[in-house]
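Hi everyone,

Forwarding the result from last night's run.
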Amino acid sequence: MKKSEFLELPEIQKWQKATSNNTTQFRMYLHKLLIICNTNQITISDILDTDNHLYKMIEIYNNFKQKVAQGEIVHTRNVNDSPTNFTKYATALKSFFGSQGFYIPPKFEFEQRKGLPNYAEIELTDAERDQGLVHFGGLGDPKLLQAFALQSEIFCRISALLEWKNNLEIRDDEVDGIPVKYGYINKFYEPKQHTTWNKRVLNKGILDILEDIPQGEPIFADATKDYKEYCDELRVFYRSIGKIRQNEKSVKQTDSWYYDNYPTHSVRHSSTRQALRRTGGNYSIIASMGWNSEGIVRQIYSKPDEELVLRQSHCEYCNPPKFKLESERFCTFEHFLAYQYNDSKPKSGINEVDKWKKIAMELRSQVVS
């Protein structure tokens, strides 16, 4: 693409306006970004098509460096040299993404994507999740509460949450003779995967929150503005419960760094682990609600840890532990529903005893007769 065509793009014009106080710097960064686009053979739309902009920047940056190393750089002028210092290219990417409303953490550094560790144990306890609901509920802005509540239940990406229009269906059912209610979302679209998944809202308190969203309407009216506000408020919440520590948030390999840099994806990780706690660690069921394979869930979102391995048979409803766990565990989604609608009480053992007494008496009478 030529520079004149590049300058006509609305995203570039928005960037130019955002950096109008330093036109010389803008022209330099514009030149660098155009070289990146032409070399990587990508458009501005390709660049912005992401639900994880920091990873996207790293991916673009690394692809560019690789092509430069292979002698495939596409210059905007008739020169043959290849850059050895990529700082200005990296800064151009950060400047552009920042102008489009994406949050760029201070001192964010580019490095190979494979160097970024997996954070498969990012997790909010039940109490911390409830604190989050209280935090967002106290802001006086229903959309932020609804966003946190929904993402905490269906482990979706933020890009999907921004696009979703309410098609939540309330369904009635029965488990062990107990009337229960849950939410069902048909064909919830995940733009990154270009596919849909059927989602379920099982927490009855969260279901009450979501029932206030008008049918056919999105949670967020202004995706760019509301996304930033949601991220910022998540960071405030994480700091309040000690997930983001000031002395660790700039240090990679720490949970604080992840919570600060990926606030919405932290909710996705946490709610995935929550879903596993509700199903006795059934990776297959959880994968069927958001991934193409359970291997991805195991490796990236929730590695089997000591709690998962040792507590698989625990179920607050049918096999409650002898001591209180940090977060409740269940063997199936059905028993999670039954427990909630049974006033958070385990399945009564009296009926089971009576049942077996009755069976024993019947057998005894048959023997006697």
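Residues 350-368 form the longest helix (19 residues).

Cheers,
N.
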